[in-house]
Amino acid sequence: xxxxxxxxxxxxxxxxxxxxxxxxxxxxxxxxxxxxxxxxxxxxxxxxxxxxxxxxxxxxxxxxxxxxxxxxxxxxxxxxxxxxxxxxxxxxxxxxxxxxxxxxxxxxxxxxxxxxxxxxxxxxxxxxxxxxxxxxxxxxxxxxxxxxxxxxxxxxxxxxxxxxxxxxxxxxxxxxxxxxxxxxxxx
Length: 187
Fold this sequence. Notes:
Helices cover 22% and strands 15% of the residues. With 187 residues, the protein is α/β, with parallel strands linked by helices.
């Protein structure tokens, strides 16, 4: 089996690091429409202390007829920046089912270039089963990030033509160049 610790953190680890100033905890709960459940409503009922709610349907390409498609890098940067997420943050994602929608949030951050994002092993069900604290109510606003998340092309690829349109979900350009997102300090 691959090294799970690379992509997952334990509830013990998270409990010991809740007060870390660079820690961002995201509740990425999403449910199938037929379930009658709503991640945002469940978040307000109970979430890990300090967690923010990451709305997969809002941080998406809302102009695409398909649901929760990846947003543009610029839209993603604006949305996560407004949440107070920036460079140097350790991002821990969980969901209310244990391991259902958290991997999608993790993947979105990885595709957009985040370097330090992991999933809480067992999610909220394991956290609660262990008797760990939860809080209720809407998310508190994090301070603005010290650094911002901006889309950038890697050095040497500035002249690569871009071929990205709704029918082509690839972030590769027609010249075979790969577009990348990186964290950068604002000027």
